[in-house]
Design goal:
The protein has helices at 2-21, 24-29, 34-43, 57-73, 120-137, 159-167, 201-215, 230-235, 269-287, 295-316; strands at 76-84, 87-96, 101-111, 141-142, 144-151, 172-179, 191-195, 218-220, 240-245, 289-290. Helix 3 packs across helix 5 and helix 5 (120-137) crosses helix 9. It has a single domain (23-311), classed as Zn peptidases (Aminopeptidase, 3-Layer(aba) Sandwich). The chain has 317 residues and is of the alpha/beta class. The chain has an eight-stranded mixed sheet, sandwiched between helices. A two-stranded antiparallel sheet has the order 4-10. It has ten helices and ten strands. It is globular.
Length: 317
């Protein structure tokens, strides 16, 4: 009886343990929080009336806030400099190294500059989503390497992303998502666009599935518009897509001072969190998210495999 009990316990640890970790995408997505997303958008990224992340003082303050959050998450954090119009600007980069496929890179990007306004939707909404995904991902382990990038000078012509891609053109970038304007959904329709060329259709289909599965967002795949940070990646031959709200073209506050969290009824925080959850699901699936088992479980597994093998040999004899 004792031997049977031991065998049952070991089999439970060895055989059922991994099953509990199998759908880690769902586990990771469950950590995405609307309250946390809202806090980032409202309190970290200088999105209130009068703020200016174009060339105002809030630009550098937002850059530093993003850097500090990446560092607080434990990511390998750096400022990536590039030149624009005689000045030096910086992308903010946070890297979470992979375990078994560290050379495979998945990039989650969002630009933090604005058009001389608070830029609550364009594009603090995307940056807040990226920060929220990084926060949750930092508590997980991944097979592949995740690279979170807050790009600068997108509004002047994709200068930050173009520079980063040129510096990293020889690396194995397996997929890139540009989160750009994800907070405006006045009708509450939970729809989105995924823009890219047909060369990135496999990525778009995976992202489309993740948005619906994990965020309840229906996304279509129209013809490409190469005006966000996905474009330099595609131009270099890497799969990439732009995730953007469905109604971005009719946003009445686009590139205006009223693109602010103080504009009543403007930002749909639930919708933005759903969009973020969809991207988190894609990151978990593509990056190979997995749980790290507790030391006790690892010990049971280490003991259990040879013990079970010994029992089986004796029975066979």
């Amino acid at each position: 009886m004792f031997r049977r009990t031991v065998i049952s316990l070991l089999m439970a640890a060895v055989l059922t343990g991994p099953v509990a970790w199998a759908d880690y995408a769902t586990t990771m997505v469950s950590g995405i929080s609307q309250a946390s997303y809202t806090n980032y958008l409202d309190n970290f990224l200088y999105t209130h009336t009068g703020d200016d992340r174009g060339y105002g003082p809030e630009h550098d303050l937002a850059r530093d806030a993003i850097y500090n959050e990446f560092a607080n998450f434990g990511l390998q954090t750096s400022l990536d400099p590039f030149q624009y119009s005689g000045g030096t600007y910086h992308n903010v980069v946070g890297v979470l190294g992979g375990d078994s496929r560290p050379d495979d890179l998945y990039v989650i990007g969002a630009h933090y500059d604005s058009v001389n306004n608070p830029g609550a939707d364009d594009n603090a909404s995307g940056v807040a989503g990226m920060l929220e995904i990084a926060r949750v991902a930092a508590a997980c382990d991944f097979d592949a390497t995740l690279v979170f990038i807050a790009f600068d000078r997108e509004e002047q012509g994709l200068y930050g992303s173009t520079s980063w891609v040129a510096e990293n053109a020889g690396r194995q970038i397996r997929g890139m998502i540009s989160m750009d304007m994800i907070g405006y959904d006045p009708g509450g329709n939970n729809r989105a666009h995924l823009y890219s060329t047909s060369a990135s259709d496999n990525l778009r289909l995976a992202m489309q599935d993740a948005l619906l599965r994990h965020g309840g967002i229906s996304a279509d795949m129209p013809a490409n518009i190469p005006y966000s940070d996905h474009a330099p990646f595609e131009n270099a031959g890497f799969p990439a897509t732009l995730l953007i709200e469905y109604d971005w073209g009719s946003n009445p506050y686009y590139h205006k001072m009223a693109d602010s969290v103080d504009t009543v009824g403007y930002i749909n925080y639930e919708y933005a969190t759903r969009m973020t959850s969809g991207v988190a699901g894609w990151v978990a699936a593509e990056g190979g998210a997995h749980a790290t088992p507790e030391p006790g479980t690892l010990l049971l597994v280490a003991i259990g495999v040879p013990v079970l093998a010994g029992f089986r040999r004796r029975r066979a004899a």
